[in-house]
Amino acid sequence: MADPSQASFWAQANALLRKNLTYQRKHIWTNVRLVLVPLFLCLLLLAIQLLVDAMMKQVSDKSDCGSKDVMPGGDCPIPNPPLLPPMLQIPESESRAVKAGFFSYRDFPDKSCRRTGTCPVTILVTGNNHSLGKALSGNMFGGSFAVNTSDFLTSLANNVLGSTLEADQNNYKDPGINSEIPIYNIQSQCSPNSTWPFSFGNIHTEVKCVQGLCLWRNSSAEVNDELFRGNWRANPERMTNEIAAAYDLLSTDNNNLDATIWYNSTYNDDSPSKVLVRVPRLINLVSNAYLKFLKGPGTRIVFEFVKEVPKQQTKKNLDIASMLGPLFFTWVVLLLFPVILTSLVYEKQERLRIIMKMHGLGDGPYWMISYAYFLALSMFYVTSLVIFGSAIGLHYFRLNDYSIQFVFYFIFINLQISLAFLASSIFSKVKTATVIAYIFVFGTGLLGSFLFERLVETPSFPEKGILALELYPGFSLYRGLYEFAQSASSVNGMKWEDLSDSGMYKLFCIMSVEWFVILIVVYYIDRVSSSGKSPLFFFKNPFKKSSSLPSPPSVQRQNSDNVLIDMEKTDVTQEREKVEQLKHEGRSTGHAIVCDNLKKVYPGRDGNPAKLAVKGLYLDVPSGECFGMLGPNGAGKTSFIHMMTGLLKPTSGTALVQGLDICKDMNKVYTSMGVCPQHDLLWETLTGREHLLFYGRLKNIKGSALTQAVEESLKSVSLFDGGVADKPAGKYSGGMKRRLSVAISLIGNPKVVYMDEPSTGLDPASRKNLWTVIQRAKQNTAIILTTHSMEEAEFLCDRLGIFVDGGLQCIGNPKELKGRYGGSYVFTMTTSIEYEEKVERMLQRISPNAKKVYHLAGTQKFEIPKEEVMISDVFLMVEKAKTKFTVFAWGLADTTLEDVFFKVATTAQVFNSLS
């Protein structure tokens, strides 16, 4: 019925894809809710935008742009910008330069001028010609304040005006012309408290006189030093001594004006919108002084006004999506990370990938389909976000080039999926992974908004520092969304030619490199973990000797019960010789399972010695045989099964399954293997039929043969009738799940099946039915079965092996083992307490070597060697006892398989501990 050939790469990929699509269909409403989250946020941003627009419109409607009382600026149209007098930027009176210990020159005014408010405005001058500098310094400032109202601006230009207020972002309305703040007229000499009234438009203030002081310095280095020492930003702990400006006349002479100007631009640091500085009047001052030097005091360059460019009415608008987009959309895109991570960790926690691998799913199809599946889901999610955001009119999506957005989201989504695969190797519990993932999501958004964005907007923060922070994928996402927001705030949005200016080009490179590096790391970790090695195995000391455990000697030993146990294990030796003969004759390929000196040693850790889990196992299991492995917990049965199913690599030796070496051809072995694990590894939302369809496809069963195989499997384990086959496995009882696991292990008639306690949790009727299924299945299959039920072992197994401390102690069918190790009867009698000694004496007469093994409240149990007594003697003894005292109950039983197991296991453990 099944195709014995190995399922191809694409057949495995098809099986996993169908399973994932079925699983996705079961969670359709979860996905709908996931997609609705970004759509809801887009609608929320739109609602906020509409509300803000309405409020801004109300403010705009209330403003009267035609009123004469409204000063130019703001949002009103300005077809004819006002003509404003040019002004100097001067320090506040209490901040002007005075004598101080940190100034090397002593020509500054005394600090007493601060009490009277008469400190001058100081300008430093240097150059190659001292006399020329002195002449120009005398021509800098004018005389008393005088204004001709008939020619206001021209006459005002003859006065050097200054302001202590910094400039604004435009010249439509100069903050220096304000009715509350006086204007200063800078003169060579001032009379005390000289003030004049001043009117400009609807502004009525006063002009105060302030002295302009020009001081000579011998070099530009001295000027630099005094400007720096007097600046409050350089010396916040000292009294501020600000110098208004400075000139370096360089090589100026009668034929050439060559000057460098120092001016204070630090007023703009507190507010990025303050972009203008008061430099034009400084240029005019030195130019006028030079012209007066050449042509006399009656010649001047008149600087009448400064004027801004005309502008249309500005509509008040705040792009809320661009303002909040980096934070909101960081959360939206990163919301996929917990979804992907929890899905991967769930498969790890429930060991679903392991069981898929055991049934033939290769690593290649798993990685390809899982990655493509998450990529398709993520792209659909992000595409829905962009389309919906564009449809409702958010400039954040509409203005930026869609191809740039696609490339950005595509690269980051791949990076995010790779990061989720990497993180899944760290976590083993879904709850832990979920909590950490959501902390990552919301923490990244908040850190990006309140820390990373501030650093990006800080000019002094080094670009290398920004690039280093962008190595964190969350900040890479935030930076890209931030750049989209900044571009959407402009008119044109982001285009391809803007990538280098915005930093997106470097961002693409960083994310792409991280994507591929993380994929390589994930592949390495997966390869290492599948081999059972530590990911940092290459850091171990190469000179450290690995510890090994000596093999116990093979001798005969007498136990404490004086029962001679054959520790030579003749049957085990015969099994080894049989395997060696098969290997020598080259006939091992015709046998289902052949184990050749299979060993597994777990290296010692934390100072503990190495653990020898499997000690040179030799075993031959032909097709059609069910081999039962019995043994106490920790005997090594699980390690043996894990090696046979490819979960562990043997330390030495090997095993052949259908002639294929488990160390070299495990992927081919999987195609002919079935596994029923100890714990049911099932998808809660998939039905029994869907489970069997998936695993049937992995066994390369197709078409009608697949449908038939699934129905037969369901019927065999009584899961076909009553709609049970189409119920989610999560609603199955424990016994139904167990039967489904057995059906999965047998789907496709595998040549080799490993069953780990298959009937655990079943009621007697279901257990009996399951045994029938296994008996029927073993006709063409080799089955290795582990169990703690001696009844199950005796019913199903053709041969048994008792496994203790990593080695087989005996091999044989149940009857042989009971005959070999069960050399006694078990006699039980219950009487009154006062007759216990009489019962023991009567039994000693017919069997001197009888041994009491149990005693409680008149009930005694004895072991009687078979060679010492006949059953008729026991019956006669009981009849005689009944004539002397009351016998409440008695019984005589042959040795059970459980007795054999107990005796062999305990004897072997005692022997191993002594040797």
Question: Any overview of this molecule?
Answer:
Belongs to the ABC transporter superfamily. ABCA family. CPR flippase (TC 3.A.1.211) subfamily. It is a multi-pass membrane protein. Pfam families: ABC2_membrane_3, ABC_tran, ABCA12_C. The protein has 915 residues and is of the alpha/beta class. Among the domains are: 22-46 and 317-531, no CATH class; 88-295, no CATH class; 823-894, Alpha-Beta Plaits, CATH 3.30.70. The protein is built from 30 helices and 24 strands. Strands 1, 2, 3, 4, 5, 6, 7 and 8 form an 8-stranded mixed β-sheet that branches. A 6-stranded mixed β-sheet has the order 16-17-18-13-19-20. The longest helix has 35 residues, at 28-62. It is elongated.
Lay out the secondary structure.
Blueprint: H1 9-26, H2 28-62, E1 88-89, H3 113-116, E2 121-126, H4 130-138, H5 152-156, E3 161-163, E4 183-187, E5 195-200, E6 203-216, H6 220-230, E7 245-248, E8 260-263, H7 280-295, H8 320-334, H9 336-349, H10 352-358, H11 363-391, H12 395-398, H13 402-424, H14 430-456, H15 463-469, H16 473-489, H17 499-502, H18 504-531, E9 557-558, E10 564-565, H19 570-585, E11 593-602, E12 611-621, E13 626-630, H20 637-644, E14 652-657, E15 660-661, H21 666-670, E16 673-676, H22 688-698, H23 703-716, H24 734-746, E17 752-756, H25 764-777, E18 782-786, H26 790-796, E19 799-804, E20 807-812, H27 814-821, E21 824-831, H28 836-846, E22 851-856, E23 859-865, H29 871-884, E24 887-893, H30 897-914
Parallel strand pairs: 1-3, 2-6, 2-7, 4-6, 13-18, 13-19, 16-17, 17-18
Antiparallel strand pairs: 3-4, 5-6, 7-8, 9-10, 11-12, 11-14, 14-15, 19-20, 21-23, 21-24, 22-23
